[in-house]
Specification:
Layout (H helix, E strand, L loop, with lengths): L1 E3 H6 L8 H11 L7 E4 L1 H7 L6 H9 L4 H10 L4 H13 L5 E7 L15 E5 L2 H14 L3 H10 L8 E7 L5 E6 L10 E8 L3 H4 L6 E6 L4 E6 L5 E5 L6 E5 L12 H18 L3 E8 L2 E9 L11 E3 L15 H21 L13 E4 L2 E5 H8 L7 H8 L16 H41 L7 H41 L8 H4 L7 H17 L2 H9 L2 H9 L7 H11 L19 H11 L7 H22 L2 H48 L14 H8 L5 H17 L8 E3 L13 E3 L1 E4 L2 E8 L14 E4 L15 E4 L7 H9 L3 E3 L4 H4 L5 E5 L4 E4 L1
Parallel strand pairs: 20-21, 21-22, 22-23
Antiparallel strand pairs: 1-2, 2-5, 3-4, 3-5, 6-7, 6-12, 7-8, 8-9, 10-11, 12-13, 14-16, 14-17, 15-16, 18-25, 19-23, 20-24, 24-25
Helix pairs in contact: 5-7, 10-25, 11-15, 14-15, 14-23, 15-23, 17-20, 17-21
């Protein structure tokens, strides 16, 4: 029932000790200074509550006829479990002079949506068996207090879920105490830490009896941004007699001095940064300082983060669904992406007369929480000049959180806005025609250039020649490739909007999703179709089937690498040569492509071998195309005769843009494949010259920094320091569920849903009931079984081979043109995207019904 911290660290399977105790163990595992101590597990309280003398008062407390104080009196009279008594006595005998801090450690404490902050009890500076027993019982009684019960109801949690451990720690006679937030909880500035500090014990701060000094420190730039110093007349100190703490006056001559020096601010921030990196998300920590040393006594995730210090409106919409914002992003990847974004977005808006004057010189993209965001406020500023613009419709279409009441900004229709709208419309139509004429020419030219890059003997090049050619690849070839893709995406978005306007009179009778399904020979379906054909080929040869079905993946990898020529391996090599530019995460340059590591392909093939012809992606696509033709005929029949030609042309144009969107995406993926190949060769040279310490370090330099390094404008030591700083930032947020929208307009509250019906965006028609398979990462996708409904945050093209298995798809992010939506429509499986809190609400293995027509999930 009672375990020392040291013994807990040695256990492979730990008892239930509560979040506070678990966080302290995590700090110890990171090597952070933590006061020694022990933890009482949750079974101790369960055993204690079984005592016959507590049954009546517990029932009365649950019925509300007695409160926490009366219950404490009953707890005081009841005996502790004998095993706990013996363990406590042994602990105290080993530390007879020690004073203890006794803290509650709730199992449901410090959750992402339920922190239980300040609701449980802490008792400080106790010593001796009787005092510690009383403190433990006080902590236990707090579980049944009114504050906890009210909080449970507000959070929708059941009392039966509550379990409580207790932490016993050596009491540090703190000369200074406080809290530190590794991300400023109000401004949201992600490299600024907020420290609050008081003299003496930290209980004076937590209880609100003292106004703390506050310090805002930017760890990335090593700058003290702001400090506010309070005059402190007294402080809380530990004493020997009950209540074990007392107030003492401070010397008036030093009452206005800062609690922390600048060096102490830097020291505690460096310690906090190491904690944040270890966790992978922002935390608040409680700290104490005594005899020149800092100790951490608690660590919690920051559960509510406001971003009012970030000017404007920023979103990850269209960046997160399999894109650069789907996970933490390295500086090089964002540097490449932003290189295109900052050039193409304002240029496109200017060309189409949608660039607002106040947005002419703004930043269009920025990194927050190690993920890229784009400046949606600046885009809206231009759109507000269009007649009939409704802000809520714009936000809803993109899946952006609506942070206002009503429709938001609505632009009136008047002569001035109409004239501007006609000017914009003419520019857009010209852009659409030019884009469709440009794409075939560009695709041919781009494929030729990609073929040249693929056969360039980079390993034989001298360092200067390689570095020069590499920078040309990034600055010229990549720009040509990705800018064409971005401009097409911008046009595609506007083509879709204009078609939907024409489609409005028919949307109650005609299925819009069917009209944009059944696209033939889509680039990202070719790999699926050919892998399916390969699986059918293997099924016809018993030896080959047995080999691919039964051989472990590691052996398949070895056979592939060492030239195995039997069991259809040559055909597999041809497949990987053709589609080796793909990867599980195609916009993450740190992830190996299938050409380097085809394990994902092998696993996908194994799963296809167990499917019958009903899962044939080619047949699915044919069915979807027939559905499209049928729905198209219904649409044209429903339209007045004089509008049919224009409506048919608009639909053909939309489908052409959708097809080219995927074709250009594939060319973009091929370009990133070459960039990774060349980058690894450059990294190998830089490591050999000891300019960088590891090959992966190259991904932790921005595009401009890497350019400067290879051009001789940045020295090796400076580059290595930049890598360390960028890695610290990247690691700080690798496990963080970042808000999708940030800025002064947004509250920081995440969208949640309650009840059994979850609402999202209907993206592929149909209804299915089945088993939910919650997959948080593509590398966990091996758990998918035929007929599962995939529940995940997002998908990208790397998921495509898995869709043959699925009965339906639901994601937390995305919209009509997201990868999951496009592939689901081509496979004819229902899909609902942009479902808030999806991964929190749906349990793995749960039976659910997914309605892709209504955009609903029913939890059974």
């Amino acid at each position: 029932m009672l375990y020392s911290f040291e013994s807990l660290l040695r256990l492979e399977s730990r008892p239930i000790i509560g979040k506070k105790a678990e966080s302290l163990l995590a700090l110890l595992e990171q090597g952070v200074p933590v006061p020694p101590g022990a933890a009482i597990d949750a079974t101790a309280l369960e055993s204690f509550l079984q005592h016959e003398s507590l049954q009546e008062p517990l029932a009365a407390c649950r019925a509300g006829t007695i409160g926490e104080v009366e219950l404490q009196a009953n707890f005081a009279a009841a005996p502790l479990p004998n095993a706990l008594v013996q363990a406590l006595r042994a602990l105290l005998e080993s530390s007879p002079e020690t004073r203890w801090a006794v803290r509650s450690s709730g199992v449901l404490e410090d959750l992402a949506e339920a922190s239980f902050a300040g609701l449980y009890t802490t008792v400080l500076n106790v010593t001796g068996f009787d005092e510690i027993v009383a403190a433990i019982k006080t902590c236990w009684a707090s579980l049944f207090g009114e504050r906890v019960q009210v909080y449970l109801q507000r959070q929708g949690l059941e009392p039966a879920q509550l379990q409580l451990g207790v932490v016993l720690q050596h009491m540090i006679p703190a000369q200074k105490s406080g809290v530190l937030f590794t991300v400023h909880p109000l401004s949201g500035q992600d490299t600024q830490m907020l420290i609050e500090a008081v003299p003496g014990l930290g209980e004076a701060l937590v209880s609100g009896h003292l106004t703390p000094d506050s310090y805002t420190y930017d760890w990335r730039h090593e700058i003290l941004i702001e400090q506010r110093i309070e005059t402190q007349e007294h402080h809380l100190v530990a004493i020997d007699a009950p209540p074990f703490t007392a107030w003492q006056d401070l010397d008036p001559a030093t009452a206005a001095d800062p609690v922390l020096s600048l060096e102490e601010v830097k020291t505690i921030c460096a310690l906090a940064l190491s904690v944040q990196q270890g966790c992978g998300y922002p935390v608040d920590i409680e700290w104490v300082w005594a005899a020149g040393e800092f100790y951490l006594v608690q660590r919690r995730p920051i559960t509510k983060l406001h971003t009012r210090g970030i000017e404007g409106e920023w979103t990850t919409a269209d960046f997160k669904d399999g894109g650069v914002s789907s996970d933490v992003c390295t500086p090089l990847m964002w540097g490449l992406y932003d290189y295109i974004w900052e050039a193409t977005m304002p240029a496109y808006l200017r060309k189409t007369h949608l660039l607002a004057p106040e947005s002419a010189h703004v930043l269009w993209g920025e990194m927050y929480f190690a993920r890229p965001y784009w400046n949606v406020g600046a885009v809206k500023a231009g759109l507000k000049g269009l007649p009939g613009f409704v802000e809520r419709e714009f936000d809803t279409d993109l899946g952006i959180e609506v942070a206002y009441e009503g429709p938001g900004h609505v632009t009136p229709t008047n002569p001035r806005t109409l004239i501007h709208g006609l000017k914009v419309l003419a520019a857009l139509k010209q852009a659409f025609a030019s884009r469709l004429a440009f794409n075939p020419v560009f695709a041919t030219r781009q494929q030729k250039r990609l073929d040249e890059l693929a056969v360039t003997p980079i390993a034989d090049m001298t360092d200067p020649a390689l570095f020069g050619a590499y920078l040309q690849l990034l600055r010229q070839d990549y720009f040509n490739s990705e800018s064409a893709y971005f401009y097409h995406i911008f046009d595609n978005s506007n083509v879709t909007t204009l078609f939907k306007d024409q489609f409005k009179p028919y949307r109650e009778r005609i299925n819009y999703l069917a009209l944009i399904s059944g696209l033939q020979d889509l680039s990202h379906l070719r790999q699926n179709r050919e892998l399916w054909d390969l699986s059918r080929q293997y099924l016809t040869a018993p030896d080959t089937l047995a080999y691919w079905r039964d051989t472990p993946e590691a052996q398949l990898m070895n056979d592939w690498r060492t030239g195995h020529s039997e069991h259809g391996m040559p055909a597999m090599r041809q497949y990987i040569h053709r589609f080796g530019h793909h990867s599980p995460r195609e916009l993450d340059l740190t992830v190996a492509r299938f050409e380097e590591d085809p394990g994902f392909v092998f696993t996908s093939l194994k799963q296809l071998l167990g499917l019958d012809d009903s899962a044939n992606p080619g047949l699915s696509n044919q069915r979807q195309h027939q559905d499209y033709l049928s729905e198209r005929a219904k649409l044209l029949k429903a339209a007045p005769w004089h509008k049919r030609r224009g409506l048919a042309a608009a639909l053909d144009q939309l489908r052409a843009f959708l097809w080219w969107r995927e074709e250009l995406r594939d060319l973009s993926t091929r370009m990133y494949h070459q960039i990774r190949r060349w980058t690894l060769e450059v990294a190998k040279r830089l490591k050999a010259a000891e300019t960088l310490m590891a090959t992966q370090d190259i991904f932790f330099l921005s595009l401009d920094e890497l350019d400067a390094l290879l051009s001789g404008k940045l020295a090796g030591p400076q580059a290595r320091q930049l890598v360390l700083t960028h890695r610290a930032y990247y690691n700080s947020f690798r496990g963080f569920r970042n808000p999708d929208e940030i800025g002064s307009r947004y509250s920081g509250k995440s969208r949640t849903q309650s009840g059994k019906v979850l609402l999202g965006v209907a993206c592929s028609p149909g209804t299915v009931t089945g088993t939910a398979r919650v997959i948080r990462d593509i590398f966990d996708a091996d758990r998918l079984q035929p007929g599962d409904i995939l529940i995940t945050r997002f998908t990208d093209p790397g998921w495509t081979p898995r869709f043959s298995l699925l009965a339906g798809v639901a994601t937390e992010t995305g919209g009509m043109l997201s990868h999951a939506a496009v592939i689901s429509r081509e496979y004819g499986i229902p899909a609902v995207l942009a479902v808030p809190s999806l991964l929190d609400r749906v349990k793995d293995g749960q039976q659910i019904t997914l309605d892709g027509d209504r955009g609903e999930l029913l939890l059974e």
